[in-house]
Amino acid sequence: MSPAPLETRNAQAVPIADVPDLGDEEFRDAILTAVSLGSRVSALFGHPAGEGKLRLFCVLANDELGSLALLSRQVERRFMSLANDCPGVHLFEREIFEQWGVEPHGHPWLKPVRFQPPLVAAGARASQIGVANFFRVEGEEVHEVAVGPVHAGVIEPGHFRFQCHGEDVFHLEISLGYQHRGVERALAGGPDKRTIHYIETLAGDTTIGHAVAHCETLEALAGAEAPARAHAIRGIALELERLANHTGDLGALANDVGYLPTASYCGRLRGDFLNMTAAICGSRFGRGLVRPGGVAFDVEPARSAELQGRLARAMRDIRGATGLLWETPSVMARFEETGTVTRETCEKLGFVGVAARACGVGRDARQDFPLGMFRFSQVPVMTWHTGDVFARAFVRALEVESSGKFIDGQLKALPAGPVLAALPERAPDRIVATLVEGWRGEVCHVALTDERGRFSRYKVVDPSFHNWTGLALALRGQQISDFPLCNKSFNLSYCGHDL
Amino acid sequence: MLKVFLERLRQGYRTSAYPLEEPKLPDRLRGLPVIDQAKCASGCEAGIESCPTSALGMKDGKLELDLGRCLFCGECERTLPDGAVRFTPDHKLSARRREDLVLRGQELALAGALEGEMHRVLGRSLKLRQVSAGGCNACEADVNVLTTIVFDLGRFGIQIVASPRHADGILVTGPVTENMKLALEKTYAAVPSPKVVIAVGACAISGGPYIGHPEVHGGAPSVVPVDLFIPGCPPHPMTILDGLLRLMGKIERKRAAEVVE
Ligand code: SF4
Fold it and tell me: Which pTM was predicted?
């Protein structure tokens, strides 16, 4: 019998040596078996193992059991692709190929992910942004619409190719990489004075989500815990981030169907939530707040009281603003049955966050893998089953409600004590995987330390990495004019994907 | 329909009175830093090492802070001798020349208006095409927020437009990744002359946290000529608005008054 994957928990550091090193077949079988039993692949990445070898690490997450499992496999030039049996790994395998030149043999289509320079020179290909073997539908009346990287709005760059028949979209291909800034490469060898700033700008709208995942990772490696009051403030900041972004998205969705009252109210309210974060730490995006060992700013009683008042007023207004959406037939007609993704597709491809919960999949790291304050104060998981634009909007509105309640509860009962603790040295030769439910979904950080406790590899999986394929599939059979609406309903991160 | 009206009444009037009134900003906002050279008597050399982007330096025995590189993280407030650098909530940070962003204890020379023909053409109506070239979506978001009812950019004659062909200039965010360089150059070329370039955020001014990465180009100035620099990581929306209005000469008089003081 082959060795079983190493069972572990969220944000728990374990010796790298304990992670079983499997053979090609065993590795494949272990992953496929785990997936058939309800796990999904949270991360799959390479790490140089010396002597020209690459060690592949896989992080399996079982939402129901709340457990993580780690396994690995040493490869040289190629390994057996899993993408045909477990489509959720298709992008991870393409990433491994692009970063390390190791080929997932039998992968259906090994296109570049980010058009990035390889992390090792040997065996890898150079690629030029936007030049790839794109999918094409042939036929006399089929035409192709290509947009981007520069788009019409104030938005990050990406390239989209629609294969159309008249107004109908057969297929959408999304080609990214324009935002690639070399973050993973630069994180290796850290932590150093730039590390926290890389983390805070991985996806700037998810500053808190990524910073909490990073700091929990460091705390796990140091075998220490942030003070309770810091956990509460991190929780408040994480939910304020969710409130601001969900509110912005609801407004943007209203705008995309031409319903201006909600669009303009939400535009203002999003700012009100950002300003609450700024009231805590001076930055609307939470820059400088979450730090290894706790948080850099306290919320004193007077500040807490003021925030409670502001929150109550904003919650009243957001309820009024979003309530209009569900009562307006012209809005609902555009939201319902547009950009539908089935539950089956969601489970197969391992979508996370709002995109998954809108397919009726109750996946939420705050509930399944709770860290920090979420171990003590639960936030209910909000789902809707229709998988369309409406579901993604409605789940956001439900989450706005529950985030508001959570923040109010935390502000009213902040634990006493300090907000920052000094961290001991990080343990050497450890691996730790940390999952945090950012506003888009699961933020996954995996750190491996060397013999001095420095990062020999720091892998980041933004929720968008799992979900971009969801947007592509949502567009199938839709009108091309529905693209902005569908896109907004996912609102995925380019920089979080491109790193 | 009645509900829509009732909700409209409840939501109220929300546009800020700026620039007639000073904006209400958070007390912890890290805006304009103030340098006190005297406090460096006990030695600032050790403390400047902690700056993540080398925005701090010593030149001729004097402490320098480059707003174009600064992430406004506040780390130096903790590592330098007490009071050597102190962040104030003053949101006015924009400059027309890159070298003006280097503070040595002098007053920041805030951006002046466009000159001559440029001012005549662009001073009353400024249409901008935004290009994100590796931005993390924080600068982008706080540019976008200017179009909401709170700031109501349109009342100043400024508009973000969908095509470079309709624009008077580009507003760049991000460190200019290698993968976006060509797109940025093409967008710039597509804007009819006369045109302006505005760099928003530490990334677009200098590369920000990505300074020195081979994957990026060190900001907009490495690719296109820049007319206005708006520091921050990200800049507060009021900082961006203040910069745009100064460029158009809409709050120039106030600046002059400040200079006289
Ligand atoms: S606030 Fe600016 S100057 Fe000070 S340490 Fe941070 S980046 Fe450097």
Answer: 0.93
